[in-house]
Design goal:
221 residues; alpha+beta; 10 strands; 25% strand; elongated
Length: 221
């Protein structure tokens, strides 16, 4: 005859726990979808231009949600707590690492308007001189919180480690309703049109920014 005490019975999942798990999945999926859409941002809404914050949010939400689901659905308490702690640590690592990476890589843009058009379009200059000197010119359409900017720049100039930029853009103007003319420091001018809906320029003037493709015009000093 064996006198071994049998293990305590595993309690069944309650309806409350199942509902809480469903809510957790719904909220996590909703947050991840919203973050992916904000990162994609095909219309170029300035308010959604948050750099790496969106993918960092996904990297934090997924393990955090997994930890909550484990606590709600795994009926063996020791295993549930162990797995939940691992998920919590993963979420914390993603939060700290992602926040540091975002602060390190996100440009501290200084914005200035260089030209305006009667149709409500603008040419805006974004300059960052923290780690590298970089200037981007974009077509913008001001509309309060719905303000948009072209996701691809009209022009981009970059210089690294104290080097002088290959060219400098001295001015910009609208040559036509949907055409922009840039004047460079060597006296030459460069023009391109843009789509009035997407704000996307037909060509991008590139100087050491790494843009490639048929739509790129590489500047020469």
């Amino acid at each position: 005859m064996s006198f071994t005490t049998p293990p305590p019975p595993v309690p069944p999942l309650t309806r409350t726990r199942k509902r809480a798990a469903g809510v957790t999945v719904t909220v996590a999926v909703g947050l991840c979808v919203a973050a992916v859409l904000a990162w994609w941002n095909p219309r170029g809404y300035v308010v959604l231009d948050t750099g790496l914050l969106a993918p960092v949010a996904v990297a934090v939400v997924l393990p955090a949600a997994a930890g909550v689901l484990v606590l709600l659905l795994v009926r063996t308490r020791a295993a549930a707590v162990t797995i939940a702690v691992v998920c919590g640590v993963a979420a914390l690592i993603a939060l700290c690492g992602g926040a540091g990476l975002t602060l390190w890589t996100d440009p501290a843009w200084k914005r200035a308007t260089l030209a305006t058009a009667p149709g409500g379009y603008e040419v805006v200059s974004l300059t960052d001189d923290s780690l590298t000197w970089r200037q981007e010119l974009r077509v913008a359409h001001p509309d309060g919180v719905l303000t948009r900017e072209s996701t691809r720049p009209l022009a981009c100039v970059q210089a690294t480690f104290g080097d002088h930029p290959k060219i400098r853009i001295t001015s910009a103007r609208f040559a036509a309703a949907h055409e922009v003319e840039l004047t460079l420091d060597n006296g030459t001018t460069w023009r391109t049109t843009f789509d009035p809906d997407s704000l996307r320029p037909a060509q991008t003037l590139n100087a050491e920014c790494g843009y490639t493709g048929a739509h790129v015009h590489n500047a020469t000093p």
